[in-house]
Amino acid sequence: MAHLLIYGTLPPPIGGVSIYCKRLCEELDLRNVKYTFIDINKTSFFNIFVSLTKYRAIHINTSNPLFRLSLVVLAKLLFKKVIITFHGDIGRFNAFKNFLDRCSLKLCNTPITINMGSYEKAIGLNSNSKLSSAFFKPRKIDQLKEKHLLKIKKLKSSNAHLFCSNAYDVSFDKNGQETYQISNIINIFNRIQNKAFIFSDPSSNYLKYLKSQNIIIPKNVFIIDESHDFNAVLRECDAFIRYTTTDGDSISVKEALSLKRQVIASGVVSRPKGVTVVNDLDSLKAEIRKFYLTEVNLTEAEDNLEILLSAFDVKNKER
């Protein structure tokens, strides 16, 4: 019987889970770790169930609580070892979905949490819980299109500082607020002179939403509404804004720090050392207004892959 099966998604679309899975597979390949990956967005539930019977260890990557629990129950009935990476802040859903997540936490062999707040909740339900970042440093960064680079060059020439943010799609939290708060961020830049903002919108759905809400896009805001490498945007900017109403690990925050870019983020979850934390729109606006360049001292993260390999019961075979 084969050992490791990974359930998840791969780009496109670009999102936290799909980027994590893509980079995890790249790291496993580099270390000659044998595994099978199944894209749950492209596979029928029947074939997903059949695949469960063929492997000893199952690694689940999905943000859907009901689907996640279904996989856990089926896998445990088949006496499989189940590892779940929880790609979000545990407890961020409504009461029913949070209940489903608590069930998944208790039933699986090893829950992997991606921030300290989630870990503290998980360890009380499952003593095997682990804390491990969802960030793997990208092996390569794809160049932006020439038309995008020209637009960015123009923004740089007429503004003192360039900020950026991203969202894989439009989403709303349990209170009905925009999770990524892009409308509010754009409104801030609409009232600030000498600062510019690039918004990465690979699905193009956010731009459609902004237009439907009659949000004015000022000249100092540039929206890239097609598929591209966000790391290439980060390289062109001075700072990254992550003003979300809920979060998990935020791969983008650590991508920015790894590229030595400053980060301004909401304090809805624990943030890495060096991040400027803001708790409301007024403080965000103030940080943007008074922004100045400082050196970013990146602290190397723990070996996230080693934590996963230990959970998978696989030895590191790095070349």
Structure description:
With 319 residues, this protein is α/β, with parallel strands linked by helices. The chain folds into two domains: 146 residues, Rossmann fold, CATH 3.40.50.2000; 144 residues, Glycogen Phosphorylase B (Rossmann fold), CATH 3.40.50.2000. The chain has a six-stranded parallel beta sheet, sandwiched between helices. A six-stranded parallel beta sheet has the order 9-8-7-10-11-12, sandwiched between helices. β4, α4 and β5 form a beta-alpha-beta unit. α3 packs parallel to α4. The protein is elongated and about 60 Å long. The model has no long low-confidence stretch (mean pLDDT 93).
Summarize the structure.
The chain is an alpha/beta fold.
Which CATH class of the largest domain is shown?
Alpha Beta
The appropriate CATH architecture of the largest domain is 3-Layer(aba) Sandwich
Structural class: alpha/beta
Strand content: 15-25%
- Strand arrangement, major sheet: 2-1-3-4-5-6
For the report, how would you describe the main beta sheet?
A: 6 strands, parallel
| Shape call | elongated
Distance between the termini: 25 Å
Our Rg estimate from Cα atoms comes to 20 Å
Count of folded domains: 2
Number of helices: 12
SS elements, strand count: 12
Q: Give the topology string: H per helix, E per strand.
A: EHEHEHEHEHEHEHEHEHEHEEHH
Quick tags:
Rossmann fold; 6-stranded parallel β-sheet; 319 residues; alpha/beta
Itemize the secondary structure elements and their pairings:
Elements (H helix, E strand, L loop, with lengths): L1 E7 L7 H15 L5 E4 L5 H8 L2 E6 L4 H13 L3 E6 L8 H13 L2 E4 L2 H8 L6 E2 L14 H13 L2 E6 L15 H8 L5 E6 L4 H8 L8 E4 L5 H7 L2 E4 L8 H8 L3 E5 L9 E3 L2 H9 L14 H9 L7
Helix pairs in contact: 3-4
